[in-house]
User: Which sequence fits this backbone?
């Protein structure tokens, strides 16, 4: 009879967990879940930061492509003031704007020029000049100049023209407020129109 009582107590003991065991298991589960949440949040932050940096790189690459394409259609570049002619010399001081002289042959065979200006206004990089048509060409028929916002959160825009006014070195810094960093890039642009006489 003594054996059966002990066996009964032992069987009753195995049927469930005690309150202390349940509390310990709950605390362990909470700690594990908290650790998983911290890892997940850290991963989200790293992914967001990488996405923002990639977006900044793409934005600056698009800007460099646009500026290079438009400059290649020009015959002269200058900083600080509109180029007076295709063949001139330039001051090589850095400025927060770049102006490109675009030669145009108008109806009737007369020659004219248009100016495209890239400049920094506060933290906005703006483009002033002929409208860009849907096909990517400049609207050179219309002489009206339009101002377009290209990039926001710009902390640096510096252009230095070459002495012959046919090339320029550009530096652009794009602020990334959420990462508290500045992504910078430098590139050169050059004119391809050399046989235009004005």
Assistant:
């Amino acid at each position: 009879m003594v054996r059966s009582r002990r066996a009964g107590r032992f069987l009753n003991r195995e049927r469930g967990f005690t309150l202390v065991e349940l509390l310990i298991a709950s605390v362990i589960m909470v700690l594990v879940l908290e650790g998983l949440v911290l890892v997940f949040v850290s991963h989200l932050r790293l992914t967001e930061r990488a996405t923002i940096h990639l977006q900044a790189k793409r934005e600056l690459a698009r800007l460099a492509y646009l500026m290079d394409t438009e400059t290649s259609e020009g015959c002269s570049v200058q900083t600080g003031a509109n180029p007076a002619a295709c063949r001139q010399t330039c001051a090589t001081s850095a400025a927060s704007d770049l102006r490109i002289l675009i030669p145009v042959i108008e109806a009737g065979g007369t020659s004219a020029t248009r100016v495209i200006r890239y400049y920094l206004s506060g933290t906005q990089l703006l483009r002033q000049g002929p409208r860009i048509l849907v096909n990517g060409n400049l609207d050179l028929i219309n002489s009206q100049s339009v101002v377009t916002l290209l990039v926001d959160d710009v902390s640096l825009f510096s252009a230095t023209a070459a002495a012959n006014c046919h090339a320029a070195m550009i530096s652009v810094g794009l602020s990334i407020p959420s990462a508290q960093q500045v992504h910078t890039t430098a590139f050169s642009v050059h004119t391809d129109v050399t046989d235009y006489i004005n």
User: Anything to note?
Assistant: The chain has two helices and eight strands. The longest strand covers residues 111-121. The helical segments are 2-14, 19-72.
